[in-house]
Give the backbone structure.
Amino acid sequence: MAKKKNVKDVAEEKIVKKTKKKKEELEEEVEEKVEEKEVLKEKEKQEEIDEEIEEVDDTEEDLDEDESEDDELEDEEESEEESKDGKKKEKKSKKQTKRDSYFTSVNKELKKVVWPSFGSVVKYSLCVIVFCIVLCLFFEAVNLLAAFIKGLFQ
């Protein structure tokens, strides 16, 4: 004969099923969050790699510029040896190439600069002015306090 289930046993089974469902749902949520974190970490790593690549590209450009300057200097030195009469002209061109390469590198760096907006300049200027006023008031208060204490002992 099969045993009849008690009301308590049925209730316990329902509770067990509900807790199992909740546990599974929570586990799924945890897995989703872990996957999201992994994706975020991968994105951050990719951004770091991209930044490093940009830095390497910048250094390669600088090295290429240095190499081209060295090549230009070597070519100019060879031409100096070939003709003594053209020394003055070559020195001028040598100075000109140095000057040109300097200004091109300065121009590249200035293009990388992120200039502040007018609103942020005004905002930070006001912060500096307010901070200076607060410091002036503080030091004036300290000065008055010191004069008051000195006056007590005289």
